[in-house]
Amino acid sequence: MDKTRTPMPEAPLASPIRLSLPVQGMTCAACAGRVERALRKVPGVTEAWVNLASERAEVAGSAAPACLAAAIRGAGYEVPETEREIGIEGMTCAACASRVERALARVPGVLSVSVSPATERASLRLLGCIPDAPLAAALAQAGYRLAAAPQDDAGQAAAAARRRMQTAELVLAGVLAAPFLLGMLGMALGQDWMPGALAQLGLTALMFLWFGPRFLRAAWGALRDGTGNMDLLVSLGTGSAVLLSLWVLWRDGPAHAHGLYFEAAVTVLFFVILGKWLEARAKRATGAAIGALLDMRPRIARRLEADGTERDVAADAILPGERIVVRPGERIPADGLVEQGEAGIDESALTGESRPVERGPGAVVSTGTVVLDGRLVLRVTAVGADTTLARVAALVAAAQASRAPVQKLVDRVSAIFVPVVVCIAALTLAGWLLAGAGLEEAVLHAVAVLVIACPCALGLATPAAIMAGTGAAARAGILVRDAEAIERARAVTLVAFDKTGTLTEGKPRLAALHAAEGLAPQATLALAAALQAGSEHPLARAVLAAHGAAAAPAEAFRALSGRGVEGVVGGRRLALGSPRLLAESGAAPGRLAAFAEAEAVQGRSLAWLVDVEAHAALALLAFEDAPKPRAAEAVAALRRMGVQVAMLSGDVATAAAAAARQLGIDRVAAEVLPADKAAEVQAWQAGGARVAMVGDGVNDAPALAAADLGIAMGTGTDVAMAAAGITLMRGDPGLVPAALDITRRTYGKVKGNLGWAFAYNLLGLPLAAAGFLSPPVAGAAMALSS
């Protein structure tokens, strides 16, 4: 989530409040009394009551919620924090986003707020749950409205109604502005096509009666809050033009009035409305990724009843543990395990993989994917917000709502932008008057300054690019956690891959077994299988697969971190593991050393079966794990991008080097224990590299967290994904260069957008002040700038 949120102030609140806080950990009346006493000691608290049954504390007074939560935690209990997103209507520029943040941060119980003007949504961190009413009231006081959730039916209907209303208003504004636009065209052609003075007055009155109040309300709200926004600039500019025209009309009379400027006010309003319509259209396009994901959820599911009959029910009514049926051509309505049937499944919408994958009994399937052939019976494992589809949508939404560090500069500029523009307009008016220009000419140049300024372009430059980039990445199966990950990714100079499961298939097979002199290979394989019985480690599965028969598990079994396993089989204490384990046991490899060297040259991973008490090597096991199909291609692509590539492996140096040569990697860290992977990453960083670590397992999590950018394979564990800035939804190394490429392009677009936004305002304001732009032309430029 965003790291630059507006914090809740720690100072006591200005006015008394009544606050309800959830409290966790209370077990008896004594606990409730303890919490009450702790709360009453907080400065500003006038009274406190604790209800043990509802596990809530009611507090009256002016103490800040954060102080109350600290007191409860100090007493040994917890106040749970929650996160929530809300939609906001009425924002017009980046200055509005800052006002909304301040308004919501003042609501008791809100810890932090982050508002995105591009998505028109606010991410809140709350103490417990806060109902809509206080949030809506805070927004209304600031001049905005709480919107329905876009994924709800009501929210979608409301959004569609708003789009229709925006289009209808654009048409109405165009009809009212058309006579003025025609008259301005006539002026350019030397013709007088402008309506008469009273007709101009009537058209202007209709335009301002319909559209003016919204701009005036928003402008007044900004002034009342001690800030400014685009609506203030538009109101000042168009209002000045109308007042000037009314003065001329009163002075000269309708029959003789010339030099009216109603057309400036009306056309500026039209272009502003056109600009907002285009802006809303662009926002919908850049934010389409979330909508497309959520649209993949089927509305109807086919539940399999206990008597074997099938019944159509709402997908939201399905519960975990129930069985559902999915037929060919249908989307899967919930995450589940396949119990019966086999089918090809199109998972492209989630993983970006265009080729169907085969799924049969025991396989995991996800909501929104399409069954292409065959009938499947599924046991539901997750529904609603717990499904993979919902989590992916939530990650994309969080990324699109986050702020890039560069946005801090934009926020600082936006905070002073409107006051600076108003000052420039005032200086323009004074300068032209001092230069001898008439009042009308000076006012028009000041109006042009007010209407050409565009804080919207600055406010949208970063979030619009991030929305588009993260949306495109999600469609390719690449999930970017936040905007900060985009900035870190563009600076990466070295990508370090974990070997097993990342560059290789992660499904090793036993390629060779060499037994010590006098021992039968099958007998030693049976001993190794007994040590690995019940283990889910890839090498253990390879041993058990090679053995074939069921093996009785070893007694006194224990895992040796990063080295192997140990246990008692047939009364003998045996160990199976890496060459490091062999050295630690003090066993001599004997004639097996030559086999070990030959196997390592071929790039195979080695494991030794050792009799611990006899200090004897019983057998050498050699495993091979095929590289993933696109691993070498991914390495080559990264090198073409100017990025160095390294590999981390727990294998012996010779085996790791052989695998690296096969893939085109010239930088290898071999025989690395899981705990030491992070140290290797830090060593590369100390040498000046900006490191991206690619891994898929629990043991990769420390290295992923230590790297400048963690990239987790979606085929791996939740722990690895939680430590990563980017998650790849399928185990394809080719997505790594694609991820770096799309983040670089996105950051380049952010810089380009900001460059154009700053250049537009830095160039447009002086031109307007110098008299080179009329208000209608300035209004058109402002409308198109976003």
Rounded mean pLDDT is: 82
How many β-strand runs?
A: 30
Backbone shape: elongated
Q: Output the structural class.
A: alpha+beta
Alpha-carbon Rg, integer: 34 Å
Strand content: 15-25%
Total of helices: 27
Instruction: Write out the strand line-up for the largest beta sheet, numbering strands in chain order.
Output: 18-30-29-28-19-26-27
Our measurement of the CA-to-CA distance between the termini, rounded to an integer number of angstroms, reads 26 Å
Secondary-structure blueprint of this entry?
Elements: E1 6-7, E2 17-22, H1 29-40, E3 45-51, E4 56-61, H2 65-74, E5 81-89, H3 94-105, E6 110-116, E7 121-127, H4 132-142, E8 145-147, H5 153-188, H6 197-224, H7 230-252, H8 262-286, H9 288-294, E9 300-304, E10 310-314, E11 323-326, E12 335-340, E13 343-346, H10 348-351, E14 357-359, E15 364-365, E16 370-371, E17 376-382, H11 388-401, H12 407-434, H13 439-452, H14 455-475, E18 478-480, H15 483-490, E19 494-498, H16 499-503, E20 509-515, H17 521-532, H18 538-547, E21 555-560, E22 564-569, E23 572-577, H19 579-585, H20 592-601, E24 605-611, E25 616-624, H21 631-640, E26 644-648, H22 653-663, E27 667-669, H23 677-686, E28 691-695, H24 701-706, E29 709-713, H25 718-722, E30 726-728, H26 735-769, H27 775-785
Parallel strand pairs: 19-26, 19-28, 26-27, 28-29, 29-30
Antiparallel strand pairs: 1-6, 2-4, 3-4, 5-7, 5-8, 6-7, 9-10, 9-11, 11-17, 12-15, 12-17, 13-14, 13-16, 18-30, 20-25, 21-22, 22-23, 23-24, 24-25
Helix pairs in contact: 3-4, 5-6, 5-8, 6-7, 6-8, 7-8, 7-13, 8-14, 8-27, 9-11, 11-14, 12-13, 12-14, 13-26, 13-27, 14-26, 15-26, 17-18, 20-22
